[in-house]
Write a structure and sequence with these properties.
Hydantoin_racemase-like; four-stranded parallel β-sheet; Hydrogenase expression protein HupH; amino-acid racemase activity; 253 residues; 14% strand; alpha/beta; Rossmann fold; Asp/Glu/hydantoin_racemase; 9 helices; Iso_Racemase_Enz_sf
Length: 253
């Protein structure tokens, strides 16, 4: 039995964590693999500044440090920002899959130019960073949103009647005005919109979270992981320091 750890980028209740786990319903995975969802202890309120990005990196690194020791075979990061991915790849040899970059790379398999559909434009710097890292800025037709502030705990519950049509309207602008032939959902917090949009849009819609689970399964079956030449191990690992940070935050909350 393969075990995959999914790191959720915000502290949350069991009820809200179950809304993240619901992403598994969107993909049929083979037998012999289990996904466990774990919320971080260190996190910003949202991802809208450089300080937030730093906190997110630290929190996700701290949450995944012991994954290999705990018997996990792969790690998925449940945020399109890919926070902590590079750091975890430097300390783990098991596959570490980031939802954001893999969604963009998958979009290149399905079409030529893609648009990133998000809830609000304050997330745009996250996408621009990944696009720059991958050298894919010229393949991004647009980044659009209906400017609706997200709720990273309750997701879209109770707002479906307003959010779903608004996202559809903006997605059609991406297709008709910007020339996108693939749409990427800009956050795993938007996964509840995928079925609605996929049924109504004339182009493929990538749901980053479930895609990352499938890629983790594929990496395990093919016995592939990231290159340690690209992600070298630290000369002086400090897992104790990061764990102490997590314990301190947990004790105060």
């Amino acid at each position: 039995m393969h075990k995959v750890l999914v790191i959720v980028p915000f502290p949350m209740s069991d009820e809200n964590l179950s809304k993240r786990q619901a992403q598994l319903e969107a993909v049929k995975l083979g037998p012999g693999i289990r996904f466990d969802f774990k919320a971080v202890r260190i996190a910003p309120v949202n991802y809208v500044s450089q300080q937030d990005a730093l906190l997110a990196d630290v929190g996700i690194l701290e949450a995944g440090l012991s994954a290999q020791e705990e018997g996990y075979d792969a790690v998925c990061i449940d945020t399109v920002s890919d926070s902590g991915m590079a750091a975890l790849r430097s300390v783990l040899s098991i596959p570490v899959i980031g939802a954001g970059r893999h969604a963009m790379l998958a979009a290149q398999m399905l079409g030529d130019r893609f648009s990133i559909l998000s809830m609000w434009s304050r997330w745009d710097p996250l996408y621009k960073k990944t696009l720059a890292d991958l050298g894919l800025a010229h393949k991004c037709a647009s980044m659009r949103s209906p400017e609706m502030e997200p709720n990273n705990q309750k997701l879209l519950k109770g707002r479906e009647d307003t959010v779903f049509p608004a996202l559809h309207r903006v997605a059609m602008q991406c297709i008709e005005e910007d020339g996108a032939d693939v749409i990427i959902l800009g956050s795993t917090t938007m996964h509840e919109t995928h079925a609605y949009l996929a049924e109504r849009l004339p182009v493929p819609v990538i749901n980053p979270g479930p895609l990352s689970y499938r890629l983790a399964e594929t990496a395990l079956r093919l016995r592939l992981s990231h290159s340690k030449s690209a992600y070298p191990a630290p000369l002086a690992p400090r897992p104790d320091m990061f764990r102490a940070m997590g314990e301190h935050v947990a004790a105060r909350s």
